[in-house]
Amino acid sequence: MARPLVVVAGARPNFMKVAPVLRALAERAPEVPRVLVHTGQHYDAGMSEVFFRELGIPPPDVHLGVGSGSHGAQTARVLEGFERYLLDAPERPRGVVVVGDVNSTMACALASVKLGVPVAHVEAGLRSNDRAMPEEINRLVTDAVSDLLLTSEPSGAENLRREGIPEARVRFVGNVMIDTLVHELREARALSMGARLGLASGRHALITLHRPSNVDDPRRLASLVALLGAMAGRLTLVFPAHPRTRAALASGGLLARLECHPGVLLREPLSYRENLGLMESAAVVLTDSGGIQEESTFLGVPCLTLRANTERPVTVSQGTNTLVGEDLSRVPALLEDVLAGRYKKGAAIEGWDGRASVRVADALLMTFSAE
After folding, report:
1. CATH no. for 5-174+353-367
2. Which residues are marked as active site?
């Protein structure tokens, strides 16, 4: 029996990346076994199961069930569980594929290389240059130990070169997130989410907030709620609140202000297609999510990123993204530019073409032979 390729997913941002990679591997080399390991970092139906169903991801072959916890505790449980899986596996994997920058990404990469199993990192080389972000540490560590580094935009190779990673280990493949977007866009449109929510075409904003820099600071969160209240006088705001965001709003006494505002539609987390449909038809997106910066750029939708930095600079230099930074007073003028049609239009980005996962599969099969 041929030795398998093991593909790891742990949290919601991973699912959109592994789905096209698994499809491409099945198409390019159906004879190579594929093992999908779900670490369980995101484990509830709203953050995990619905994405597997909607994106056509097969049921995981292995579920580690690590659950939530502090960064150290969660990372340790993933590392321990994945190491045990590798030690007990009937066939030594030809390679392990990790994606993105969540705790599961780093932990599974470490467990693999310590046992001599080669690792490929999809979405390698992205850097915010902000070590206060746990994701930045995960990126740095994963890239340092990976054997094959697959980049999604030009900054990836530049960052890896600066960090001393040999160029022979780096391949530019493009953005697998866009593969999923292209694959799912027709189904997303068919949901007619705007009509279902009673939204006028192009007259709503999509809001997503979950990063600690925005959510865990009560004063920052209160300022953001005030900003959203002011914006809701111009546009209807659709705000699918991440569980940790909703909890922070509630503990800060801010949740009722949004729930009672007639211009704010506060919702539970949306499925991928629901979110995509609302994003495509939005006038503007306000976010602190890396993936949404990419998706909005591909869709040509203005994106105002409520962060001081981004690990996806091509979305700013070529796309429709603007870094707002700490000064929220910039937002009203940017919103006026959007509504007046003055906001930048963006341009097509190399490798964001719906075929990145095929290039990933080819690189994996070429690098990780059965021997």
Report:
1. 3.40.50.2000
2. 210
